């Protein structure tokens, strides 16, 4: 495998090239405990609320080009990946400073020996906080919300409200994850390696998506404002990012579902148009990139896992 590829363009090229200042950061409370070397704030606090300018350094992850050892939190992500986007948006929205390591999954960087040392599951997202490495987006989000004491609504301290978030996340892993990513495999990723998913599988997936949306709307949203209650939580973020995957390839998920459409608007309004645009621009341009053939060609080493993923489409 050519693990020596340097990610300078492709899926990560829309990202800001170097440092990016966020100001002011919407932080509710400073963290109780900070790891010794964490570059917490780069700017100045002023006033009671302490306007803090925080930085997120953006650096492509590559196996051969050395980068300065990170002083604090590192997030290994790819914005084509729905769980990666949830982590990215959460960290950005909460002004959590991190080094962004973009792992080009189309080029197969996640299959390299070097990335294996970081995550033997060979998937993104991954969090690295000093020597502590954590995989699984929901675990990462919970870790970040606890470590940085983000506003309580994200991951409520109230037992029952928190249990509602976990109730959703459990169902999400069963019924949303794995289902909503399929259209992207059908329309973009399969064709990249010359594979066409059979029409009956596509149809079955459409039915599964419809069924899941019905449950999402009736059981989880119900007459509430958000999926796990009256305030936005990690559940909403995870759901929104997964739903963006079929939306990006033209599925009109919200058509004829006004309650779900209003929920999406509320979540996006809460996150802010700028952050949504930043996080979604890559995925929303995927069809265009596929049509223009500007997506990288996956190296043959990643074919087996791509073929396996496609074969697993029910
Ligand atoms: N359950 C994991 C899923 C992680 C995952 O499946 N990541 C995908 C991108 S969305 C990946 O890295 N795939 C690469 C591969 O499987 O080869 C989470 O929520 O973090």
Give me some keywords for this one.
six-stranded mixed beta sheet, 44% helix, 314 residues, transferase, glutathione transferase activity, alpha/beta, Glutathione S-transferase Yfyf (Class Pi), Chain A, domain 2, disordered N terminus, 2 domains, 11 helices, GST_Theta, cytoplasm, Glutaredoxin, glutathione transferase, binds glutathione
Can you walk me through this structure?
The protein is an alpha/beta fold and 314 residues long. It has two domains: 6-17 and 63-147, Glutaredoxin; 159-311, Glutathione S-transferase Yfyf (Class Pi), Chain A, domain 2 (Up-down Bundle), CATH 1.20.1050. It is built from eleven helices and six strands. The protein has helices spanning 82-93, 113-118, 137-147, 159-176, 182-192, 199-221, 234-248, 258-271, 273-284, 286-292, 303-311; strands at residues 19-22, 54-60, 73-77, 98-102, 126-129, 132-135. It has a six-stranded mixed beta sheet with strand order 1-2-4-3-5-6, covered by helices on one side. Strand 5 (126-129) and strand 6 (132-135) form a beta hairpin. Helix 4 (159-176) runs parallel beside helix 7. The longest helix has 23 residues, at 199-221. The protein is globular and about 50 Å long. It starts with 18 loop residues before the first strand and ends with a helix. Bound molecules: glutathione (GSH). Glutathione (GSH) is lined by residues 81-83, 105, 110, 122-125, 136-137, 305. The site of glutathione (GSH) has 12 residues, from helix 1.
């Amino acid at each position: 495998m050519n693990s020596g590829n340097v990610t300078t363009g492709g899926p990560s090229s829309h990202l800001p090239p170097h440092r990016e200042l966020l100001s002011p950061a919407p932080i509710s409370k400073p963290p109780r405990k900070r790891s010794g070397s964490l570059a917490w704030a780069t700017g100045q606090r002023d006033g009671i609320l302490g306007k803090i300018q925080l930085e997120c350094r953006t650096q492509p992850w590559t196996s051969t080009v050395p980068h300065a050892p990170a002083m604090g939190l590192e997030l290994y992500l790819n914005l084509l990946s729905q769980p990666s986007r949830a982590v990215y948006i959460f960290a950005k929205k909460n002004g959590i400073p991190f080094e962004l390591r973009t792992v080009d999954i189309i080029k197969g960087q996640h299959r390299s020996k070097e990335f294996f040392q970081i995550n033997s599951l060979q998937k993104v997202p991954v969090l690295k906080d000093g020597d502590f490495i954590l995989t699984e987006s929901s675990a990462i989000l919970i870790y970040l919300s606890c470590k940085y004491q983000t506003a309580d609504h994200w991951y409520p301290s109230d037992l029952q409200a928190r249990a509602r978030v976990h109730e959703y996340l459990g169902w999400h892993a069963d019924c949303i994850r794995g289902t909503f990513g399929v259209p992207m495999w059908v329309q973009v990723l399969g064709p990249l390696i010359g594979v066409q998913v059979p029409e009956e599988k596509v149809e079955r997936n459409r039915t599964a998506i419809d069924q899941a949306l019905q449950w999402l709307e009736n059981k989880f949203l119900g007459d509430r404002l958000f999926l796990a209650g009256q305030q936005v939580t990690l559940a909403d973020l995870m759901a929104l990012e997964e739903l963006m995957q079929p939306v990006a390839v033209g599925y009109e998920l919200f058509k004829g579902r006004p309650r779900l459409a209003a929920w999406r608007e509320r979540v996006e309004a809460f996150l802010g148009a700028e952050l949504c645009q930043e996080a979604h621009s890559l995925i929303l341009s995927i069809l265009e990139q596929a049509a223009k053939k500007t997506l990288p060609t996956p190296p043959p080493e990643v074919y087996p896992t791509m073929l396996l993923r496609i074969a697993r489409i029910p």
